[in-house]
Amino acid sequence: MTYNMNDVVAYFSDRLKKYGANDERSLGWSKNKQEVRFKQLFRFLNPGGKEKRETLLDIGCGFADMYAFIEKNANHSNIDYWGMDIVQEFIDIAGKNYPEKLDQLLCGNFLECDERKKYDYCIASGIFCVYESEEQNYEFIKKAMTKALNMSNIGIAMNFLSDKIDYRTSEKDFHASPEKILTLSYGLSRNVILDNSIMPFEFCVTIFKDENFDKDTTIFNYAEAFCKE
Predict the structure, then answer these.
(1) 43 FRET partner, CA 20 to 30 A, in 57, 68, 121, 130?
(2) What is the C-alpha separation between 215 and 95, in angstroms, rounded?
């Protein structure tokens, strides 16, 4: 059985009606940790921190809060931001918040995107939190990770609620197994980082597209500069 996107739209539309525009609870989050999540997602990819201007697709962009985070962080300022969400109301609000990005805020199902359109980075925060069934959720995660990596030039980062928890806040929340997510990640690249070092009940996976390495040093090519620091 396929993951039901209509259920996802209904879930977030109901939350929007309950909590209103620009409230992170409408996006399924709480406790004012949006910026912490963005920092963790950017931690290893470091998008926009290089001389060359880079492109980034924010999958499930919500109110485009990631764009605001980028704009106020000089370390990530060299980014051409694009946002996509399946919920039209979120895109409408994001467009009002950031009219200068109106043409780069897209409504649609990410899994149906044309893979010929490439971004340097594809990043997703909070898109895996709605529970359907174990089978459906992991099928959706695998498809989304594969699609994102195919559409990226450099890499992807995605976050998850962890199943290593003391209690569940809602039966509708999906808590992923870090072990299963790591296995899915290694099916796409050898160059993988699972980071559970910031928040105990949430984790982030970063996958680099380039998994080439020096056969003499057995160090990933991208990490050569890091090793010489």
Answers:
(1) 130
(2) 48
| 3-class secondary-structure state, position 152 | strand
Cα–Cα distance, 156 to 42 (Å, whole number): 10
pLDDT in tens, 211-223: 999 899 999 988 8
Q: Closest Cα to residue 150, out of 122, 176, 129?
A: 122
Expressed in angstroms, the distance from the first to the final Cα of the chain is: 49
Q: State the Cα–Cα distance between residues 202 and 212, nearest whole angstrom.
A: 29
- 159/42 Cα distance (integer angstroms): 11
158: nearest Cα among 149, 168, 167: 149
Q: Is 154 helix (H, G, I), strand (E, B) or coil?
A: strand
Tokens coding 177: 């197994």
What's this model's pTM, rounded to 2 decimal places?
Answer: 0.93
Residue 152 confidence (pLDDT) = 97
Tokens (6 digits) for 32: 């004012």
Which DSSP string corresponds to 120-153?
EEEEESSTT-B-S-HHHHHHHHHHHHHHHHHHEE
Task: Provide the 8-state DSSP code for 101.
Answer: G
Closest Cα partner for 130 from 32, 38, 28? 28
